[in-house]
Amino acid sequence: MVDAAVLEKLEAGFKKLEAATDCKSLLKKYLSKDIFDKLKGQKTSLGATLLDVIQSGVENLDSGVGIYAPDAEAYTLFAPLFDPIIEDYHVGFKQTDKHPNKDFGDVSSFVNVDPEGQYVISTRVRCGRSMEGYPFNPCLTEAQYKEMEEKVSSTLSSLEGELKGTYFPLTGMSKEVQQKLIDDHFLFKEGDRFLQAANACRYWPAGRGIYHNDNKTFLVWVNEEDHLRIISMQMGGDLGQVFRRLTSAVNEIEKRIPFSHHDRLGFLTFCPTNLGTTVRASVHIKLPKLAANRDKLEEVAGKYNLQVRGTRGEHTEAEGGIYDISNKRRMGLTEFQAVKEMQDGILELIKMEKEM
Ligand code: ADP
Ligand code: CIR
């Protein structure tokens, strides 16, 4: 049984969403009264409710999506809400569709998207992974956060060659070092209100940290939004080199840590936008002519299934005309296809900019 206090919050949240006529989130779009009534009394075996799923989007009416999965079971139990949102975000991944098996494809077919270095400042590809046997943020205990951090950092310490690096826990890191890592785009920001409202920042900074190699081209975020975010990045537009480094890192880490995988949804993540491949391949790019109007840029990018973000990531503004442009879809296509979609779209945008 769901507590009376939780039910009361749920009813108030639903009313708030109903009244928010200018709210554009997918939560608002798909949480009908029927679905709400069907799901409000449900509880996962770890005790998570619909409130855990929707509270971020209720508190932040400017959310693009607005929901998170407190544990793996939530994707099944609350499927009447998750499934249409997944289908909408991942552009046509239907409720009867099955995400394909992992396939990095022929990584040598990726190119430098800007060999003359005129537009692209840097390139990054990341993927997310959840550790088997652990729920997501709102259901984790402080002891679990620390245990996971220990498992991940000790595993990463066995990596060699280009992937060899050091783990830096957030606990004890000076504010200066932390801010420099954030400003240089290597570390997650602190105090994300969407994550906070989703109950994803409890016990912060316990169990959180970053691993990176010396030149910060290979990085792993530990226990931020997802258990692991595996990242490859470097200056310039050499997507081939960036993706090759990522695939070799993921292959190495997968040999050592078992990850949560769902037969239909692919790799499981806290946010439904990251399911499936979990891959976000992005460039930091300057397109002064195309970007003279951000709405226009977003419209053109949308045609290629690309998403435009600000310089410091999601929900930020562009600084100095630098945009973060990445593949939007992560489900219903392979890792290779997700990165290819980004490569093809960026090559088109650069071509358009040149012709303007
Ligand atoms: P995520 O990649 O996990 O979805 P964000 O949108 O919050 O998360 O971005 C995380 C960080 O990665 C931010 O500091 C952002 O500026 C940085 N970033 C993303 N793409 C690039 C890129 N191509 N080059 C450099 N930094 C990047
Ligand atoms: C939102 O709904 O805006 C936040 N919860 C973040 C969603 C993830 N964004 C995305 O487009 N990948």
UniProtKB/TrEMBL annotation:
Record's keyword annotation contains Nucleotide-binding: yes
Pfam families reported for this sequence: ATP-gua_Ptrans, ATP-gua_PtransN
GO CC aspect terms: extracellular space
GO biological process, one term: phosphocreatine biosynthetic process
Family: Belongs to the ATP:guanido phosphotransferase family.
PANTHER family: ARGININE KINASE 1-RELATED, ARGININE OR CREATINE KINASE
The protein's name in its UniProt record: arginine kinase
Organism, as annotated: Penaeus japonicus
